[in-house]
Predict the 3D structure of the following.
Amino acid sequence: MKISKIIVENYRSIQKVEILPDNFSVFVGQNNHGKTNFFEAIDWFYTAKSSKVDEHFNKEESNKISVEIYFDDVIDSDIEKLTTNANKTKIRTMLDNNTSFSVLKTSSDHKRKYFVNNADKGNPSGLDTAINEFLPKLEYVNTKICLDDVSKYKDKNPIGTMLSGVLTAIIENSQDYIDFKAQFSKLFNSDTSEVRKELDKLGTKVEIYLQKQFPDGTKVKFGVNPPNFNDLLKSFDTTVDDGIETKAEDKGDGMQRAIMLSIIQAFADYRKEQSGGGTFLFLIDEAELHLHPSAQRALKKALLDICNTDQVFINTHSSVLVVENHECQKIYKVEKSNKITGITEVGDAEKIDVIFDLLGGSPSDLLLPRNFIIVEGRSEFEFINAIVKRFYTTKYKGIKIIFAGGDINEQEPSLLAVHKLFVPLAGSDNPIYKDKAVVIIDKPNDGQQTKYNQFKTGYPYLFTNGQVFELTVETLEEYYPNGYKKYKNEIQNNEKVKYAKEVAEKITKEQFELEMQVIFNALEAANTKAFNPN
């Protein structure tokens, strides 16, 4: 079972939005445009028993809040996971062999209504109880929550359910655990238990003393409830030793956030190993909050693992959580216009613009290069960088030279390395530098021609668009100006980089531009094609 559609009306800045989520849905947009309002609307659907005035659109109570969530692909095993036969029967009766249904909640009375094939099933007695167990459990990690909050788990808290589920799965087949559970029940719940009798005696004594304080006929009852066995598996403690051992709750927001999200990641591993239990809906507000980019990537990978069994919604300002595609991922842009929030799905064509906006809005804002020149080896890298530093500091500022391999490698693997380096810059699904990046390669010899032809076939537009610059000779050393040329038998591989630096410091600007025109023309082309050309 999965959520297939969500319709929200009249919740805060949302007048009406409708989305068709996938298992991993990412919501992006500027601050104060309504991303959190959408998450809060889903939370309202799950939890609200009343509505504040400021939750209504335009703060007018006449604007009735409405949230309807559609569920598809219900299979029998989803129903079989329910804990009681009564709940199973109620769900089967409601669905009547259908595999889809929707649940509507409004601010009129905050009671749910259920629809199957557009037929209003109302809210018959007992159905809410079954639906509460049947619907995906909501876990909303908002920006205000801290580790100390989630450590105080209750029996129905989704993260508490997750943790106890993981721990129970580990020990439930242990005979010692089975015997202990039985003994626990006998000790605290059996009428013949001496411990239970003593607890009841204590309760009776407290009742007597309480009753004396209420002489007007008020009846006071006091009972000592037995401990909840399930709560034994819902306690954890985390300390961090970075010179001084400290409770994690006392550490910074970044550490606390990382621990909370690690619980979710551990749950992902657990879910991959088990088939029972209900599904979950995770809402993570500003998923990247306090996390280093590398931790953001790890988090996304863990969340995608969860999406094999559950659904995850995140909102974010981070390009790290958006840039990579995934088959179960959808991206939504949240944008406010005239104080009204709209949510639209972002296709591949618009995705590059979304990423660009997330990163800052322009290459200069992002500290990204205006363009790239890709060269094969370290010698070309050092030579061109030194030439630019000497003669063209202003003109070619912002053009980044990167090299694909070292001169100690042969030409063939170097050309392959150029291909690997070029792909993320300009050959990916969303290429920012596709029509801008420039490549400088040596003239291929007979043994390298096959790889060269493959490269040319793979990137024909580079050649037709004038982005590939090929030296007239097979090595950079042969291409230096007269007086500096070196042939293969005249210089060792381990000396080439040092020599490249020397030549770059000695030749004149005129020598470079007149006698090394291929490289000069490549620099000119990189500048002309660059963002904000000089």
User: Anything to note?
Assistant: Residues 369-529 form a domain with the Rossmann fold fold (CATH 3.40.50).
